[in-house]
Amino acid sequence: MSHALTALSPLDGRYASKTRALQDHFSEFALIRLRVRIEIAWLEALAAEPAFDLLPPFSAGTLAELDVLTSLRRIQVPIWFVNGQYDQLRVRERLFTRVARHAELIVVPQTSHLVTAMRPRVFNAVLDLAVATVGALREGPGENEFVA
Question: In sequence order, which residues have a C-beta less than 8 Å from that of residue 71 and are 6 or more positions away?
């Protein structure tokens, strides 16, 4: 089944098997991925430019910080990914949830990326639940205990 971000056009429904090979190159997701790569490359180039002294050159460690998967693996506390049902950034949410040690995925129905603006009461309830969950983990030993 195709995701809206990897769709090429309305043709994906009927002709999905014919257009699937193009999704990695011509979909909205492909555009977003390429934009991010270009922005990171531009940031690296600026940092390496001696005439641009507002940003120091990146070390290997700093460049590793730009790697989201590596960063997620280092986080030792619970992470809650709270995404809107129609959020354009949901493409890799399942991967992020698998990579992070203590991750929860919450998808808020009928919202876009702006969950806090579109469904503030629902978001606040999710936030209250997250705070209560972290508090419970700190108070008692258990299978899901973490060390902060």
Answer: 65
